Amino acid sequence: MHEFGRFLQIAGLVIAPIGMFHFFSTRPYLPEGSEASLMTWELGLLFLGALCFLLGRRLTGEEE
């Protein structure tokens, strides 16, 4: 379980910035007014990354 927890921590650190990268790289190519859907996508990935990281931290047994 320790290795899986470390994997989740690393995945969480990788997933979180992907949302920001997607937002800033796609925004110029979409019509105006569609930023809300991009922001939802970004926040969803940030939440998923944080969730993966915290779950991995709990599985490895590290205290907060």
In a nutshell, what does this entry contain?
This protein has 64 residues and is mainly α. Helix content is 80%, strand content 0%.
Can you give keywords for this protein?
64 residues; mainly alpha; 80% helix; elongated
Largest sheet: none
What's the alpha carbon Rg, rounded to whole Å?
15 Å
Distance between the termini: 18 Å
Give the DSSP E fraction (strand runs of 2 or more residues).
under 5%
Shape: elongated
Written overview of the protein:
The protein has 64 residues and is mostly helical. The chain has one domain. Helices cover 80% and strands 0% of the residues. It is built from two helices and no strands. α1 (2-26) runs antiparallel to α2 (35-60). The longest helix has 26 residues, at 35-60. The two termini are 18 Å apart.
Structural topology:
Blueprint: H1 2-26, H2 35-60
Helix pairs in contact: 1-2
